[in-house]
Amino acid sequence: MRVITSAADVARLLDAERSAGRTVGLVPTMGALHHGHRSLVERAVDECDVVTVSIFVNPLQFGDPSDLERYPRSLDADTAIAAAAGASVVFAPSVSDMYPGFPAPVATSVHVAGLGERWEGASRPGHFAGVATVVAKLFSLAGRCRAYFGEKDFQQLAVVRRMVVDLSMPVEVVPCPTVREPDGLAASSRNVRLSATGRIAARCLHEALAAGCRLVSSGVRDSAAVGHAMADMGAAEPAAVLDYAVAVDADGLQVPDELLGDVRLLVAATVDGVRLIDNTGCSVPPNRPPGPRRAPRPSEQATMERGALI
């Protein structure tokens, strides 16, 4: 495996690989690799001849300088994980190589209207413009390829997909399932910043999503009712500060009046001062009458869950 720090060098290498008839896979990351990232690399290795893992902590997507400063950096460990997963190349550029003149403002950026402005975009202004800009640059350097993204950052995945379509980029975006810890917590580089009690509290995100899925599966089609039920479960954990809990359509990430087809449940909260996000997909059961418009009351839900265990 090769470690390349020059943008020009990695572009030349991948051009040469394609010219030799080999397919290229790209796994964009900000480092601090964990088994969730490793699953992306392993899938890319299964499906492509040459796999590049980019490791770059992108300053454009951090609104809070202290959050950027705290972001873990472990290039040696990350390189070892990428190599063990079968990657061919690690691309680890400097900030000055990616953004000449930084910290002067970057003159050209990519903004995906609508998708990048709600939910995480509303809570972190400018975040998705930073994401789209760095991913567009990585795609430009990689050329025609398959790019692998985890569904854990579902809104990011939606933004990247829209950008690829709108700009006719020669990239196939490949979504990969969220990898979870044994306690249900979505694998994330931020998890290491949680205390032992914070980690227990953070389970409320996954539990809220599970409760929302149960309601959708039971036939509840009122998106607001599902969102409120998830929010109530999140609010029941005093150590978690809930930002949002919503049921949206999986394509546009908008809250519809009535849930139909593919639904995505999104939740975000702060625990121990660490912002955590999670999501899950579910579908409204086809060819069945709508269920109750409202979510069951807590006593009713408890009865339903006891019945499900019998």
Which features does this protein show?
Pantoate--beta-alanine Ligase, Chain: A,domain 2, 9 strands, three-stranded antiparallel beta sheet, globular, 41% helix, 310 residues
Q: Could you explain how this protein is built, in words?
A:
- The chain has helices spanning 7-19, 35-47, 65-70, 75-85, 95-98, 120-123, 127-142, 154-166, 196-201, 203-218, 223-235, 298-309; strands at residues 2-4, 24-29, 50-55, 89-91, 145-150, 171-176, 240-249, 262-271, 274-283.
- The strands form two sheets. Strands 1-4-3-2-5-6 form a six-stranded parallel sheet, sandwiched between helices.
- The longest helix is centred in the middle third of the chain and has 16 residues, at 127-142.
- It is α/β, with parallel strands linked by helices.
- It folds into two domains: 2-176, Rossmann fold; 189-309, Pantoate--beta-alanine Ligase, Chain: A,domain 2 (2-Layer Sandwich), CATH 3.30.1300.10.
- Helix 7 crosses helix 8.
In short:
The chain is an alpha/beta fold. It is 41% helix and 19% strand. It contains 12 helices and 9 strands.
Task: Spell out the blueprint of helices and strands.
Layout: E1 2-4, H1 7-19, E2 24-29, H2 35-47, E3 50-55, H3 65-70, H4 75-85, E4 89-91, H5 95-98, H6 120-123, H7 127-142, E5 145-150, H8 154-166, E6 171-176, H9 196-201, H10 203-218, H11 223-235, E7 240-249, E8 262-271, E9 274-283, H12 298-309
Parallel strand pairs: 1-4, 2-3, 2-5, 3-4, 5-6
Antiparallel strand pairs: 7-8, 8-9
